[in-house]
Design brief:
Length: 415
Amino acid sequence: MTDTVLDTIPYDVDAIRKDFPILSRTVRNDKPLVYLDSGATSQHPTVVLDAEREYYERHNAAAHRGTHLLGQEATEIYEGARVKLASFLGAARPEEIVFTKSATEGINLVAFGLAWSLRPGDEIVISEIEHHANLVPWQQLALRTGATLKWFKELPDGRLDIDPSLITERTKIVAVTGQSNVTGVIPPLREIGELAHAVGALYLVDGAQLVPHHPVNVQELGADFLAFSGHKMLGPLGLGVLYGKYAALDALPPFLTGGSMIEVVRMEETTFLPPPAKFEPGVPAVSLAAGLSAAVDYLSALGMDNVAAHEQALTAHALEALGEIEGVRILGPLTTENRGGTVAFEVEGVHAHDVGQVLDELGVAIRTGHHCAWPLHRTLGCQASNRASFYIYNTHAEIDALADGIRYAKKFFRA
């Protein structure tokens, strides 16, 4: 990694912010941007933007095709990103990394593959706190196969009730979020994996909110599959990652078919290459892989332990600051224990969208709505909520700006 303050300066949020051009802009009413929506998508440091630009300016070609120099360089960049991600996650081998368009596609890839083996009476176990991306694919799989969908329920404090009796000899896969995108809850992931493997079930973790914010070693985690998105961890939009134990990937049929993933093609039949090529048809998105590779370098230099510690401090500040505002209800746990840097809340007497609009006028960007987690919101007893989500570039002053903005919204709407 080059041209970044992290080469010479220890973790310093003010220095880090200088690596993110967008954070220096002003927004509505010429207010400085306070970006508290990294749970939806993160911002990009200059090194990531430069990596994509350099690919197009110097190496642009179709990877895995042709023997000319540019084609070889594109292939090296693409496969180099795979090696880097395998190391970042502690995977046993690079072939356990599959590039997808998103975490959503990665989960669908696994669900589609299991449709060939599930039968009526088989069981799928998820949880009540899932993002739709880790709920709807399993609903559809149950409909296609006649399998039964079951789920861990949410406790009153927002955490999960891990009822071991839900996992039986009929359970074929257990799929849970690594961190709730609403309440920030981090389930006991290793415990759930052990319960799944005890009955011979596969185990998938939706890591979209986990991998960008915490150190993750897939072998210690025990997951057979882990899906996440590059754009939530400083990387480009449009590229996701599916980690899978090699034997688990090898057992799945291809999800999409076409060029690049074939072994032999005849008019009568086709055989397929082994993973990961089996799951990557078409021309690879090399520019996106270059950007994600640079993002991994940036986070690795920063240190994922430092990332987690910084976000935990911000979360503790937010829980305290918002908890002091009369009429504000924080959704989920009120401590940082097993909780990530996402704080969702309601303001009594003011609709979530109105709160979001007032904050936007003040330059504070948060998310409003049900955050693709409708069942969870019903369980929490609210139609919609506001969500602030933090990342490596956020400051304690921005938490104070959020709290001040909420107070202003209450005053504006006379709540």
